[in-house]
Amino acid sequence: MATSSASKLRQLLADEKKITVCPGEYDGLTARIALNAEFEALYMTGAGTTASRLGQPDLGIITLNEMRETAEMIACLDPSTPVIAGADTGFGGSLMVYRTTTEYIRAGVASLHLEDQPTSKRCGHLRNKQLGGKNEYLSRIKEAANARKLSGGDIVLIVRTDSLATLGYDEAISRLKEAIMLGPDVAFLEGITSKDQAKQI
């Protein structure tokens, strides 16, 4: 039986002696370039996908369907190469987070990440980001973990916080620790500014 893309990604992440470089892509052409360069995993960027599909900045205007369709297309180019795909804030309330997780699993996506911004989010690299409430964020994470459990499939869940720039390191770490206790696999601190900070996290 073929190994799932989520299982392959878990194997890559489990190797503590190795860094897995995942180039960002946003359409079939950029994915083909990365595949031809023999990267072991790919990362579908929400900002790039929004710019490519809509010609707009990443300001929370792309929909679940547009993101899932792009992620599914990229994942199907080479099912043996895991694809991580941004899922913004889950595209709505808890029911939408459940739906998003389930649809990404069905699309063959190996992993998704969920952010702690409000639904009207901004790209993590832009200024003037806002943060959603911690309870809302944790509710999203619970719903994603529940969807994975009930789906019959698998997906690597990444919890992301954009709080470093506004709330500082300690609060960002606190958010990630609370989120990871709910069942996700990977913690992602957005906006690291130095090599020392990367080692610290």
UniProtKB/TrEMBL annotation:
InterPro entries: ICL/PEPM (IPR039556), Isocitrate_lyase_ph_CS (IPR018523), Pyrv/PenolPyrv_kinase-like_dom (IPR015813), Pyrv_kinase-like_dom_sf (IPR040442). It catalyses: (2S,3R)-3-hydroxybutane-1,2,3-tricarboxylate = pyruvate + succinate. One of its GO terms (molecular function) is methylisocitrate lyase activity. It comes from the Eukaryota. CDD domains: ICL_PEPM. PANTHER family: PHOSPHOENOLPYRUVATE CARBOXYLASE, PHOSPHOENOLPYRUVATE CARBOXYLASE FAMILY PROTEIN. This is Uncharacterized protein.
